[in-house]
Specification:
225 residues; binds zinc ion; Jann2411-like fold; mainly alpha; two-stranded antiparallel sheet; single chain
């Protein structure tokens, strides 16, 4: 735990400082999963004895979408204003975001082995894709490069989950579920995509769970002497 988890916290604090000063949810965002939909699943982190749900309200959902790069600052501000105008719509969007997330967690953890789970996830993905509209744009970045942008049209809240379910859809299309793993530490709920050549990634993060396991092995070895 000790040092390694401290360094993780510092990384996230640094990240948070680089962002504009708006009220941010307590807790940490982690981007270790190598796939957007899996990073999103990991927002329901349940470690350290207390359930830490990073999606506590619309603002925290928006923050996650900003930090993950789905929204740029300007669009996040637009959404923020819209949420102020339509608080009930924003609250419903959070409920929906959690619903999508639990379907995707099931897909991440059991999708490879269960056709029922895959089918449920398919229903959820199509529910989101079917009821919302989005347009895509190509935009200049300030450094002169290009980036694809995602602009919800119509009911803006309805389109929020599109990039996330599209990421999950891509995993199904590419047949990636067999490489989706849960962290090797049974106390850690994080999931990730294993992109290693030999398919042996075991830990969500070497600096936390991986390090803890290494230290435990070391202690066990010392004990044998
Ligand atoms: Zn872990």
């Amino acid at each position: 735990m000790g040092l390694s988890s401290t360094s993780l916290i510092l990384d996230h604090v640094t990240l948070a400082h680089a962002l504009p000063p708006v009220p941010r949810p307590a807790g940490l965002f982690s981007f270790i999963a190598e796939r957007l939909w899996l990073d999103y699943v990991n927002t329901d982190d349940v470690r350290r004895g207390t359930r830490m749900d990073f999606l506590r309200d619309f603002e925290s959902l928006l923050r996650w979408m900003e930090v993950s790069g789905i929204f740029d600052e300007e669009r996040a501000q637009q959404m923020r204003r819209r949420a102020q105008q339509q608080p009930s719509g924003a609250a419903a969007a959070v409920v929906d975001a959690r619903r999508v997330r639990s379907a995707l967690r099931a897909l991440a953890e059991r999708g490879a082995s269960s056709e029922i789970v895959r089918n449920d996830a398919l229903g959820e993905i199509n529910r989101v894709l079917g009821r919302s509209a989005v347009t895509r744009r190509l935009e200049w970045r300030t450094d002169g490069s290009f980036s694809p942008a995602f602009v919800p049209v119509g009911d803006a809240f309805a389109g929020l989950m599109i990039p996330i379910v599209e990421s999950a859809a891509e995993a199904l299309i590419k047949g990636e579920l067999g490489r989706v793993r849960r962290c090797g530490d049974p106390r850690c709920p994080r999931v990730f995509y294993d992109s290693t050549r030999n398919g042996r990634r075991r830990w969500c993060d070497m600096s936390t769970c991986g390090n803890r396991a290494k230290a435990a092995r070391f202690r066990a070895k010392e004990g044998q002497r």
